Amino acid sequence: MKREKQLMIDPVAAELFYRNEREKIKINWFCYEYANLYFEKIKKSRKLDKYRQRHSKGEIAKFCAHFSLAMKKSVDDLLRGLTDQTIIDDEYIYEFYPRIPAKTADAFATAAGDAWEEMFLACANCPTRCISERYAYTDMFDRLYEE
Known about the structure:
2 strands, two-stranded antiparallel ribbon, 5 helices, globular, mainly alpha
């Protein structure tokens, strides 16, 4: 099925979260939403002004997608009882930017935490249940397009 027009234009593209129909699952939708929220937090962070000047919106979006998808491990660890809270791991930042200064990594982690808190506040009233039904198929990705 060919899609004509994307209805919603987000800085982080939905296609970064699935390669085929089987990957259109709720946890990937959650990651897509989180990545876009994280992008906005990075955009607004004064501590990341220099970073934004040196990196394109496209590169920032790819980083947000990488970080968000990496957070699935933290969510899984929490739900499997391996940790007692979701961990924002600096490792996810250094995987993408191995030579980033610690001060910048800290600013990324702060923005990630702020986005995470905001995301969970929004999730509290959302009927989609992206975390508890994380491997269930969702048509939310398809709803981004007009046929």
